[in-house]
Amino acid sequence: MQFAPVAPRLSMGVGYVSATELDFYELLEVERGADDKAIKSAYRRLAMRYHPDKNPGDAEAESRFKAINAAYDCLKDPQKRAAYDRFGHAAFQQGMGGGGPGMGAEFGDIGDIFESIFGSAFGGGARQQARRGADLRYDMEVTLEEAFHGKQSDITIEVSQVCKPCGGSGAEPGTGKRTCNMCAGHGKVRAQQGFFVVERTCPTCHGRGEVIESPCRACRGEGRVDEPQTLTVDVPPGVDSGTRIRLSGKGEAGPFGAPPGDLYIFLHVRRHHVFERDGTTLMTRVPITFTTAALGGLIHIPGIDGDKLALDIPAGIQSGKQLRKRGAGMPVLQGRGRGDLVIEITVETPTRLSTRQKELLQELQATETGDECPQSKGFFDRIKDAWNDLT
Ligand SMILES: [Zn+2]
Ligand SMILES: [Zn+2]
């Protein structure tokens, strides 16, 4: 487990349904040269079949429905279709024209574009390396106490795993693979584009150079299936809202046995009813009686670690005064020591005095000369001057 900057390919939310990586033409079950009419009618037929209303609760159908929409959105537009024919999925990434609905960050890598344009300059001709599975995000809420002590937490997430029957190959057990006819096993196809010879990932085998004879029934040839997985997350002491924990290799399985992505745990620390937090500093407001404020004394307040903290109130303290307890704040994440606790004092004026107490206060009042409270005295002296000036 380690801490890492946020992954650029991060997909949002748990249970993220991977957009299918099938070729748009394959998705719509049409030939590459199909005309607009054929594409439109294929889209209607398939959209009807996979529509969420017809497949309630079927995440796979929903994912396919989205992918079909994305494919149609692209292929119905002559400009987008031309770009797609040249660059494949990469055409709809990183500002190369808008993606359709359901087009996740998973489609291709920016490298595909460069490969397409510059071909062999980037080692083209070799079979494309299978791309990694998607990174996932999981949001976890912890209390301030948990952020203080750290905690171990089991989470269960729905995440795509390597399909067991086919071992991730996507081929039905007992059946084999054959060399792709389209690219003769190179994983790339070349086409003349004006002055350039453009090389792009083979649309039939997606760069793998081979195709499956008969797709695995368990995973529909994808080589991975969504399965709930329980993971233990170690939340170290000192985490704050915005802290991310990376669980390497716990993201989605890669397509066709490619390495898995990572899982990022995004932490959110719940608001606390006593303490406010700013980094490693904790802040709290403590009301004290006006007699304690006047005479001083020792009070006890709860610490975030569960211990009682003794706080020495100096005589004559005012409301709003801040006291500091060194080392009584939050621990330093992956470091040593603790921040401070800042205690803001509020002096509370009594509201329910007994007759006897009132008498005592009246006695006290009778002895007042005004010098006991220099601020009040100064203030009223200034007001008196102002009144005198007016008259
Ligand atoms: Zn399988
Ligand atoms: Zn091929």
Automatic annotation (TrEMBL):
CXXCXGXG motif repeats lie at residues 163-170, 180-187, 202-209, 216-223. Its cofactor is Zn(2+). A zinc finger (CR-type) spans 150-228. Zn(2+) 2 binds at C180, C183, C202, C205. Residues 150-228 form the CR-type domain. Binds 2 Zn(2+) ions per monomer. It is found in: Cytoplasm. It comes from the Bacteria. Pfam families: DnaJ, DnaJ_C, DnaJ_CXXCXGXG. SUPFAM superfamilies: Chaperone J-domain, DnaJ/Hsp40 cysteine-rich domain, HSP40/DnaJ peptide-binding domain. Zn(2+) 1 binds at C163, C166, C216, C219. The J domain is necessary and sufficient to stimulate DnaK ATPase activity. Zinc center 1 plays an important role in the autonomous, DnaK-independent chaperone activity of DnaJ. Zinc center 2 is essential for interaction with DnaK and for DnaJ activity. Participates actively in the response to hyperosmotic and heat shock by preventing the aggregation of stress-denatured proteins and by disaggregating proteins, also in an autonomous, DnaK-independent fashion. Unfolded proteins bind initially to DnaJ; upon interaction with the DnaJ-bound protein, DnaK hydrolyzes its bound ATP, resulting in the formation of a stable complex. GrpE releases ADP from DnaK; ATP binding to DnaK triggers the release of the substrate protein, thus completing the reaction cycle. Belongs to the DnaJ family. This is Chaperone protein DnaJ. It comes from Novosphingobium endophyticum.
